[in-house]
UniProtKB/TrEMBL annotation:
<dbReference type="GO" id="GO:0004190">
    <property type="term" value="F:aspartic-type endopeptidase activity"/>
</dbReference>
<dbReference type="InterPro" id="IPR032861">
    <property type="entry name" value="TAXi_N"/>
</dbReference>
<dbReference type="GO" id="GO:0006508">
    <property type="term" value="P:proteolysis"/>
</dbReference>
<keyword id="KW-0645">Protease</keyword>
<keyword id="KW-0064">Aspartyl protease</keyword>
<dbReference type="InterPro" id="IPR033823">
    <property type="entry name" value="Nucellin"/>
</dbReference>
<keyword id="KW-0378">Hydrolase</keyword>
<protein>
    <recommendedName>
        <fullName>Aspartic proteinase Asp1</fullName>
    </recommendedName>
</protein>
<dbReference type="InterPro" id="IPR033121">
    <property type="entry name" value="PEPTIDASE_A1"/>
</dbReference>
<feature type="domain" description="Peptidase A1">
    <location>
        <begin position="59"/>
        <end position="407"/>
    </location>
</feature>
<keyword id="KW-0677">Repeat</keyword>
<dbReference type="InterPro" id="IPR001969">
    <property type="entry name" value="Aspartic_peptidase_AS"/>
</dbReference>
<dbReference type="InterPro" id="IPR032799">
    <property type="entry name" value="TAXi_C"/>
</dbReference>
<dbReference type="Pfam" id="PF14543">
    <property type="entry name" value="TAXi_N"/>
</dbReference>
<feature type="signal peptide">
    <location>
        <begin position="1"/>
        <end position="25"/>
    </location>
</feature>
<feature type="active site">
    <location>
        <position position="77"/>
    </location>
</feature>
<feature type="active site">
    <location>
        <position position="280"/>
    </location>
</feature>
Length: 423
C-alpha cells in the first residue's frame, strides 16, 4: 500500500495528491510519450525477491534503470500504481538509500500534456489540469503518518531479459521524488523506491502490456523463509490448479480486491458481517476492521493452550510466550487453528490461512499475531491481506481476465523457463 522507509510500526496509508502547479520551474519541459521501438511478441519475465515479513518488514526486487542501466531496490507494491525512485533532481530532502540517487536529465521529463500524466492525475484525483503546454508532470504524495514526497514524472529505460531469451529495454514512465519527508533520515532505507503494480494505466505492469512486452498479468510468491519471486506475464500461471475469484471493484480506490468474504476460525463462523478484502503486497501485516479483529482475538484467546501466556513484546500488539522461547512458527503452529476466508464472488472460493500465515515469531522468542486492528491506523472498514498472509502462496493478479488467483507453492524455489534475471 505504501513505501516503507523504515521497519513498519504500523501501516502507512498512502494518499496520492496531485498538484497542478509546477514545483520546480527551473526545469524546461521536454520529452513526450514513452516508446519502446519495435514491440516484441508478448513474453514473461521473472525476478528474484529479497526481504521478509520479519524482521525486515518488506519484500523488494532489484530493477536496472537508465542508460547505462544501474540497479535500484524497489518495494513490491500491488496496492499502488506509480513506480518511483528517490532522485537527485536536485534533491531537496532525501532519505539515505542503498544506491546512488537516480539523476534525471531534462530530456527525460514527462510534460503535463502527456497522456501518461493525464492518466496518473485522473486515476488518482479524478481531474487533470495543465496551466501551460510547457508545464512538467508534478505529483505530491502524502502519508497518514504526516510523511510526504514531492516529485516529477520522468521516463527512462528498464533493462530486463524475458522468458523467450530476448532482452528488452522499454522506456517507461515513473516518478522521480526529490523532496521526501518519510521515515528516518538518519538510517539507510532498505529500498530506493517503490514498484507500483496496481491496475492503473501508469503502473509498470500496464505500461509493459501497452508496449506488447508482457501480458497484463503479475504474480508474486513470498517465501516464509525470506525471498521469493515476482513475475510479469502469464507463462507461469497454473490456470487449471489455482483458486480463482473475479476482481471486484473496490470502494477503496484502485485496489486488487476479490470482493467480500466470510471469516471462519477453526471451521466455525466468527459471526461477523462479510468483509471487503484487498490484496496488498505493500503491507507487511494483515489488517482487519475492528469487528472481525475483535472477534478473531476473542476466538484465539478462548482456544489457546494454558502453556501459552500473553506477554508484552515491542514488535507487535498481541504476543504469547511458551515454556521456552520459540525459534520459528513451526514450534507453535500446533497450538493455533486455521482461518478461512470464503469469497462469495468465486463460487465460494476458499483461502485457508494456517497459523504460519498469521503468526510471527520475534527475536524475543514470542509468537505474535500478525493481524492488526486496521481501524486503529485509519483503515476504517478496509481489510487488507498483507505479506504475512500471502507467504508460501503464488498470488496472481490477472488483469487480462479480470480475476485474482492463489495456490500454495514452494516460494523459495524460483521457477526456470530460461534465465530471466535482470541484466
Amino acid at each position: 500500500m505504501a513505501p516503507r522507509w523504515a521497519p513498519p510500526a504500523g501501516l502507512v496509508l498512502l494518499m496520492l495528491l496531485l498538484t497542478p502547479a509546477a514545483v520546480r520551474g527551473d526545469k524546461p519541459l521536454r520529452g513526450g510519450p514513452s516508446g519502446a521501438g519495435a514491440e516484441p511478441e508478448a513474453s514473461s519475465a521473472i525476478f528474484p525477491l529479497y526481504g521478509d515479513v520479519y524482521p525486515h518488514g518488506l519484500y523488494y526486487v532489484a530493477m536496472n534503470i537508465g542508460n547505462p542501466p544501474r540497479p535500484y531496490f524497489l518495494d513490491v507494491d500491488t496496492g499502488s500504481d506509480l513506480t518511483w525512485l528517490q532522485c537527485d533532481a536536485p534533491c531537496i530532502s532525501c532519505n539515505k538509500v542503498p544506491h546512488p540517487l537516480y539523476r534525471p536529465t531534462k530530456s527525460k521529463l514527462v510534460p503535463c500534456v502527456d497522456q501518461l500524466c493525464a492518466s496518473l492525475h485522473c486515476g488518482l484525483t479524478g481531474r487533470h489540469k495543465c496551466d501551460s503546454p510547457h508545464q512538467q508532470c508534478d505529483y505530491e504524495i502524502r502519508y497518514a503518518d504526516q510523511g510526504s514526497s514531492i516529485g516529477v514524472l520522468v521516463n527512462d529505460s528498464f533493462a530486463m531479459r524475458l522468458a523467450n531469451s530476448s532482452v528488452v529495454r522499454p522506456s517507461l514512465a515513473f516518478g522521480c521524488g526529490y523532496d521526501q519527508h518519510v521515515g528516518s533520515s538518519s538510517e539507510v532505507a532498505p529500498t530506493d523506491g517503490v514498484l507500483g503494480l496496481g491496475s492503473g494505466s501508469i503502473s509498470l505492469l500496464s505500461q509493459l502490456s501497452q508496449h506488447g512486452i508482457t501480458k497484463n498479468v503479475v504474480g508474486h510468491c513470498l517465501s516464509l523463509r525470506g525471498g521469493g519471486f515476482l513475475f510479469f506475464g502469464d507463462d507461469l500461471v497454473p490456470y487449471s490448479r489455482a483458486t480463482w475469484t473475479p476482481m471486484a471493484r473496490s470502494a477503496f480506490r484502485n485496489y486488487y480486491s476479490p470482493g467480500s468474504a466470510s471469516l471462519y476460525f477453526g471451521g466455525r463462523s466468527l459471526g461477523v458481517r462479510p468483509m471487503e478484502v484487498v490484496f496488498d503486497s505493500g503491507s507487511s501485516f494483515t489488517y482487519f476492521a475492528a469487528q472481525p479483529y475483535q472477534a478473531l482475538v476473542t476466538a484465539l484467546k478462548s482456544e489457546l493452550s494454558k502453556t501459552l501466556k500473553e506477554v508484552s513484546d515491542p514488535s507487535l500488539p498481541l504476543c504469547w510466550k511458551g515454556k521456552k522461547p520459540f525459534k520459528s512458527v513451526l514450534d507453535v503452529k500446533k497450538e493455533f487453528k486455521s482461518l478461512v476466508l470464503s469469497f462469495a464472488n468465486g463460487k465460494k472460493a476458499l483461502m485457508e490461512i494456517p497459523p504460519e500465515n498469521y503468526l510471527i515469531v520475534t527475536k524475543y522468542g514470542n509468537a505474535c499475531l500478525g493481524i492488526l486492528n486496521g481501524s486503529e491506523v485509519g483503515l476504517k472498514d478496509l481489510n487488507i491481506l498483507g505479506d504475512v498472509t500471502m507467504q508460501d502462496q503464488m498470488v496472481i493478479y490477472d488483469n487480462e481476465r479480470g480475476q485474482i488467483g492463489w495456490i500454495r507453492a514452494p516460494c523459495d524455489r524460483i521457477p526456470k523457463f530460461g534465465s530471466s534475471a535482470l541484466l
